[in-house]
Amino acid sequence: MPKKSLLAKHIFISLLVLVLLLAFIFLSFNLFRYISENNDIYILGQSLSTDVSFISIIVFLVIVGFLSYIVFYLISTGRTRIAFAIENVEIKSAMAEKQFAELYNSAPIPYIILNNNGEIIRPNKSTLRFFGVVPEEIVGKDLFTFVLAEDKDKADRILQHYKLNMPIDREELRMFTKNGSVKWVLISVFEINAKKGDGRTGLATIFDISEQKQLDQTKTEFMSLATHQLRTPLATLKWYSDMLLSPNFGSLTDKQTEYVKTIYKVNQDMIDLVDTLLNVSRIEIGTLSVNLESTDVPLIAESILGELASQITNKKINIVKQYNDSLKNIKSDPKLLRIIIQNLMTNAVKYTPEGGTVTLTLIETANSKQISVADTGLGIPKNQQDKIFTKLFRADNVRDISSSQSTGLGLYLIKSLVKVLNGNISFESKENEGSTFTITL
Amino acid sequence: MDIIKLNKTVLTVDDDDNLRNVLVDKLTVTGFETLSAANGEEGLKIILEKHPDAILLDALMPKMNGWQVLEKLREDEWGKTANVIMLTSLEQVDFIAHAMEKGVFTYIVKSNLVLDDVIKIVKNTLHI
């Protein structure tokens, strides 16, 4: 062991220095005795007294001894000291490595060191517990072989990202274990050894979110059931207020008509809310189906503008239509597309002040079809723009306006539906100037 | 208001009293002869006895649900071509597909339509 040999060398050199010092003292003492017995000493032709000679010789010998030690120390122990410093670093490094290994192995979260190809080099104990395996069953295997077939495409994409040294942060996947159980996980991978080629390694962390998923599923199913049950009484209210407003059973006074219209409108808002909740739960449960068929987007837009006519008139909003026949016959799901455009238009009208402008643009480019809704409304504060598509988000500057009219689910629903239709949504917004949302299909 | 008789009979089968009553009232003031039933079993009995021109049939009901009524109805010689409009409170693709497979004329998601639209659908079914 290099550490032991270094220590022995150091002890040997230290002892050698000590022996030489003792030899100097011994020789000095004997020389002093010789001089003192002859009672005389000459230095540079001058005779010195015994006392002076004695002190001078002692000082001379001490200086010679000290200088010898210094020279010897510099020559011999200099190397030893460097070696010792290296040795200390090595010991500390070994201790740190041992501590890291202990932490790594006993961590409650599954950690896996991967090679450049995503193959498992070193799984910790939590990983073995998670998959229900012994190291021999897992080491050398591609981590993503444990991903469920339904998520294989996503796993391949993650592996490609890893190989290209792109960040992989909390990607949701389903993995199976040795006993066949399926677990939902959040997987993250980051590089821990930036060598190029085969020497490159990465650390993967697997965070089991199966319990949260189960709770989410239960909650979503409950929401779906509850909203379904709400629809019957809402339909009843709708049809009874509808009957009151019809002339079939006599006329109401103006005030009574106004009251019934309010009941009808509030009930309709509730029906819309229930529909939104149902759609969100369908997306989350995975039961939302897409029916692609010939879709007339301008017709959908016109129908939505008709529904919003009274709000547009009341707020004196100027509607600019920038569309022709280009999106009259596209292959899409008209019902889902209607929900998307309806939500965007409703938001634009709701958040645009009186006298503002809302522009609806439908265009077809060489590679895509674009639906864009621009308003001159309140805009979204810059510091909140990264959150606008999250569930229950409501911008701070519209809370007073939308507290009773907004669920915070609209943009989340839009983004989810656009994704279902294999499209993209982007936006530009400036506070107090307006927002533009663009959907590309 | 005078009601113009249409000489057509419409049966409404729904376990929700309120919804059934308002539908019957609307059909009546529109000029239809009306029949009603509060569950599938009762509905099937009336259908086979009275042969209504159109049937508004709720999907989820106690005793016998709408699908079971439809199944039995299609076994009957007259019932094979009976005009059925399914009522539902939930719009689901499998529901629609199943309804079409069973020869249902159309379906109505109750909370989506105003009563005038329901009447239009019934009239379209009967080519009025």
Count every beta strand of chain A, where a strand is a DSSP E run of 2 or more residues. Answer: 14
> How large is the radius of gyration of chain A?
42 Å
Multimeric state of these chains? Answer: heterodimer
Radius of gyration of chain B: 13 Å
- What portion of residues of chain A belong to β-strands? 15-25%
Question: Would you give the CATH topology of the largest domain in chain A?
Answer: Heat Shock Protein 90
Distance between the termini of chain B: 21 Å
N- and C-termini, Cα separation of chain A: 68 Å
Largest sheet of chain B: 5 strands, parallel
Number of helices of chain A: 12
Number of discrete domains of chain A: 4
What helical percentage do the residues of chain B reach?
Answer: 40-55%
Chain pair sharing the greatest interface: A-B, 21 and 19 residues
What structural class results from the helix and strand content of chain A?
A: alpha+beta
- What is the CATH homologous superfamily assignment of the largest domain in chain A? Histidine kinase-like ATPase, C-terminal domain
| Low-pLDDT ranges of chain B | none
CATH superfamily of chain B: Response regulator
In CATH, the architecture of the largest domain in chain A is 2-Layer Sandwich
Name the helicity range of chain A. 40-55%
